[in-house]
Amino acid sequence: MKTLTNLISVFVFVLALSTSSRAQSQSFNIDPDASQLTWTGYAEVGSWAPTGTLRLAKGYVTRTGNQISSATMTMDMTSIQHENDRLQAHLRDEAFFDVARFPTATFVLRSLSGTTATGQLTLKGVTKPVSFPVTISPDGAGLRIKGRALIDRTQFGIRYNSTSFFADLGDQAIKNEFSLQFDVLAKPVVPAKRSASR
User: Fold this and answer.
1) Which of 54, 69, 70, 191 would be a feasible disulfide site paired with 37, CB 3.0-4.6 Å?
2) Which DSSP state fits 8?
3) CATH class of the domain whose range is 25-188
4) What is the average pLDDT across 113-135?
5) DSSP letters of 49-98?
6) How far is CA 50 from CA 73, 82, 144, in A?
7) 17 pLDDT tier (thresholds 50, 70, 90)
8) CA distance 157 to 95
């Protein structure tokens, strides 16, 4: 009888702990209109560093306790912008991001250790691991997530004017890495109200 009582006590404790963990989880949706992505490319020679914007399509974040436990962000690659129309069109064509075939790119968080986020980036149909520093702070009832990722475009099949694949490029050479700076607002998901039963 004592053994049965102990087993029941353990079961109740585990159930309470599980319920408590679920209660601490909170979901957030990323607000694309209140978020900003800025990309910067770099020439191998000189100071040329074109900069433009990119729009988030959607995303979500889950926080368990005080820790981000999961996150997914989808970027609208068709929204790549630059003040130079010719360069903008070039970035959207097959030589770079081929947005007609690959209209979105996705980052899925795998772990967050201190201020380092590690996850899987899918770009131009290729998935590779990436890591970068982030800062997360409260913003009203939501979360403000900021950081800057350096991405090696050649890992995703984007080899245009890369000295890793082409020789004698001179001042036309472009660095393999480009940066993606982000300032993202995630707002808490408001549970839908249940309709009153008749």
Assistant:
1) 54
2) H
3) mainly beta
4) 97
5) --EEEEEEEEEEEEEETTEEEEEEEEEEEEEEE-SSHHHHHHHHSTTTT-
6) 24, 8, 26
7) very low
8) 9
